[in-house]
Amino acid sequence: MSNRYRRRSLRASQAVPAESTPDKIRVPTLGEVLFFSTPQIARLRIEFLNLLCASGLPDTRDLNIHACLKKLDEWAQHVKQETERNLHRFQDNASEYRNSEAFWRAGMMVTVLQQDLGVRYNPDCINTEKFNSSGEGFIHGILRGEGGTCANLPILYAAVGRKLGYPIYVCCAKRHLFNRWATRDGKECFNIEGSGKGFSSLPDDYYMKARYTVNPREVRLGFYLRNLDPAEELAIFMATRGHCLRDRGLLLDAIVAYAHAHRLGPFQPPIFYSMMEAIRGEMHIHAEGKAPNSYREWEGWDKIPRPDKRILTDEFDRVLKSPPVFRPKEAIVIKGFREGENHGI
To answer: At a CB cut-off of 8 Å and minimum separation 6, what does 280 contact?
Structure first.
């Protein structure tokens, strides 16, 4: 069999990194990164990982990761200049910003990105959870001026903030991402919400009611409202990749993406159930005898009826009542990712 048609493994354990020279740096592939350890993942910047997970999708054939990273560097530099130029605003009125320079800097970052650089929520995505394009889930859509969603705006804020040396992390609420400023000593810790217009800092209780309805038990078990570590951030990106593939009807590829996401973030129930939903959809197609010979070439996914979704009280009940069974016997204590770790800043 010719090497041209030989199947290549995604596993990086057998890959031999090329020697890097000052003028040539070897960039890891997505297949290699997926099998990196958490410390190895932490050495890669969050914006690179996000764009890497977007590469190779049906509508990202022309995605220029280098150009996106360069533009993001320019945005961060602009935010830095405007922040230093307006620092006197905090010094003159510190009480208006909780007497916290960190709080003022976070607000300034979000404000400059929105007002000067056009970062905004994509109005076409307000009333839908389906990704019509990968740019609605990954940061290249924001960099192109298309607007973003709560799936990619917090990633952009984390990327810019970390470039400025800010201890900004990504946190999960139910069906929502937001940011948190958290110093290692615990003296500065507040949430950052920039998915709407302007900057706001909302307490954790806000993400436990109304549209998010997070159960306190889910928080206690570490499912929500904690800082994600680098591997879990990568898991979020792979889940977003799975959503984009699923919404295009590429269920087999979506299942693979969800499986990698679940392995990287096993304590994120929405990822697990996205994978199970994709598997059930695949089984339903086969049960109806409608599986095509070539998934990549077949048209007509929208005509296939989907099985009804089971709606349970909360994610914990879904874990208990859905096979395969996952039953934690006691509370899972997971330390949040804090400043001082090597996370690519």
So the answer is: 307
45 domain-assigned: yes
- Residue range 177-228, pLDDT digits in tens: 999 999 988 899 999 999 888 899 999 888 888 777 788 888 888 889 999 9
297-315 pLDDT per residue, tens: 445 545 555 545 444 455 5
Domain tally, the chain:
1
Helix ranges (H only) for 27-100 are 30-33, 38-42, 46-54, 65-85, 87-92
Please answer whether residues 189 and 338 qualify as being in contact, where contact means their C-beta atoms are separated by less than 8 angstroms. no
Report the distance separating Cα 158 and Cα 163, nearest Å: 9
Query: Is pLDDT above 70 for 246?
Result: yes
The DSSP code sequence of 169-225 is EEEEETTEEEEEEE-TTSS-EEEEB-SSSS-B---GGGGGSTTT---HHHHHTTSSS
List Cβ neighbours of 303 (8 Å cut-off, separation of 6 or more).
Answer: none
Whole-number average pLDDT of the chain? 81
pTM, rounded to two decimals: 0.79
- Bridge partners (DSSP) of residue 190 are 181
3-class SS at 339?
A: strand
Selection from 255, 102, 105 nearest residue 186 by Cα: 102
For residue 189, being part of any structural domain is answered with yes
Residue 135 CA to residue 216 CA, distance in Å, equals: 33
Q: Is 270 left (phi over 0), alpha (psi -120 to 50) or beta?
A: alpha
> Comparing 144 with 324, which gets the higher pLDDT?
144
In 10 A of CB 219, how many CB atoms? 16
Q: Tokens 């994600």 appear where?
A: 228
Predicted local confidence at residue 215, as pLDDT: 81
Residue 102 lies in a domain: yes
DSSP 3-state of 27: coil
Range(s) of the domain holding residue 65: 24-220
pLDDT tens track for 109-135: 999 999 999 999 888 887 777 888 899
Amino acid symbol at 213 = T
- Count CB-CB contacts under 10 A for residue 186: 8
Does 150 reside within a domain?
A: yes
